[in-house]
Write a structure and sequence with these properties.
The protein is of the alpha+beta class and about 350 residues long. Helices cover about 60% and strands about 15% of the residues. It folds into 2 domains: about 1-130 and about 255-355, no CATH class; about 140-230, Sandwich (lipopolysaccharide transport protein A fold), CATH 2.60.450. The protein has helices at about 1-35, 40-50, 50-75, 80-85, 90-130, 230-235, 245-255, 260-275, 280-290, 300-325, 330-355, and strands at about 140-145, 150-160, 165-175, 180-190, 195-205, 210-220.
């Protein structure tokens, strides 16, 4: 059974990977023509994008491979022959189901270990070679604890020179009770000799009785809690899909996310555990759908079309529950697993009926 599955699975993995990567190839080609980047950089960027693509392609390839292999065995009456020889249908399906379960963990491992590193390498190639970018123009904020309690929030309108210079800086310091004690405005913050220096700083010192004093200074050294390298990494790595669950959890704990970002990151955190197990769910669903007599040359096209339809419906259901999970964070865990639960129930019922025939 595994030998029968391997060929269609590899075919599906190649086909779906190329289909998903087609848009990336076109985008890299467009960037090359605009920036005149070297061909080797485009090839390297494409290769670094393959791991995220394969994470998406593996469940679909397993679905297609299972459909095609079971269809062939059913169409040539080999399943009937095995059942006549005393082999139960569940025993026939067991190796494929086990393969789907193991590939779920392989996909999870690939997603958690390989994808974050590959995504980071892709951004390095894209920013330093293809785009030749030396600035990250985006707003950012940094949270850091203060000695003796309290916290400090730093806001910057943009960062330049790989975040070694911050533009439009605002620093707000809070006491243990969460009340602001000092606000600092500066035109720039420059990182040199492992220190941040504010240019043209305006300081407003707030007292407990509501009074404030203010003064200004041409330069002022401060501790922001992050160095430029960490800021660049966080500024460009603002897509939770490119992170693993540990990175997302760490970012959520920092408290640097807005309310909308918190909902998005929390939902992605839950989905990253549930989505790889679509491998097992698709296998469970594909086996009963593949048990049919398909004679002639239409089995491959029918299997491919059916696989695309199942994947399309699955991701529609996943999108619906993703919106529900983001809207109601206490339901995020259940919403992330709900597509797998629904399709598992459907697949298990159909598999039971197929076993009873």
């Amino acid at each position: 059974m595994l030998s029968e599955l391997s060929g269609p699975f590899l075919f599906g993995l190649s086909a779906f990977t190329l289909i998903i990567a087609a848009a990336q190839i076109v985008n890299i080609g467009r960037i090359m023509s605009e920036t005149h980047a070297p061909l080797w950089a485009a090839i390297e960027a494409f290769l670094w994008q393959l791991p995220p693509t394969m994470v998406m392609a593996i469940p679909m390839a397993l679905l297609l491979g299972t459909l095609l292999s079971i269809q062939r065995l059913s169409g040539e009456s080999e399943i009937t022959a095995m059942k006549a020889g005393g082999v139960t249908f569940m025993r026939i399906a067991a190796p494929v189901l086990i393969a789907g379960f193991i590939l779920s963990f392989v996909t999870l491992l690939l997603q958690e270990r390989v994808v974050p590193y590959a995504s980071e390498q892709f951004r390095i190639v894209q920013n330093t070679i293809i785009n030749r970018a030396s600035a990250v123009v985006s707003s950012l904020n940094v949270s850091a604890p203060l000695p003796g309690g309290g916290s400090q929030m730093t806001f910057a309108r943009a960062c330049a020179q790989n975040c070694e210079a911050l533009l439009g800086v605002t620093i707000v310091q809070y006491d243990r009770g969460g009340d602001p004690t000092r606000i600092v405005f500066a035109d720039r913050a420059v990182f040199a000799a492992q220190k941040w220096t504010l240019d043209n700083a305006r300081i407003y010192q707030l007292s407990a009785n509501g009074e404030s004093t203010n003064y200004s200074t041409p330069t002022m050294q401060v501790e922001l809690g992050e160095n430029p390298t960490e800021m660049v990494k966080r500024a460009v790595n603002n897509n939770p899909e490119d992170m693993n669950r540990a990175q997302i959890a760490q970012l959520i704990r920092t408290g640097q996310l807005s309310a909308s970002e918190l909902k998005k990151y929390t939902m992605v955190f839950q989905e990253k555990l549930a989505t790889p197990f679509a491998c097992f769910v698709f296998t469970l669903l594909a086996i009963p759908y593949g048990v049919r007599s398909v004679r002639g040359g239409g089995s491959a096209s029918l299997g491919f079309g059916l696989a695309v339809l199942i994947v399309f419906i699955y991701y529609i259901v996943q999108t619906i529950f993703s919106y529900i999970g983001e809207a109601y964070l206490p339901l995020a865990f259940l919403a992330a697993w709900m597509p797998n639960i629904i399709f598992t129930i459907v697949g298990a019922r159909r598999l039971y009926r197929a076993a009873m025939v």
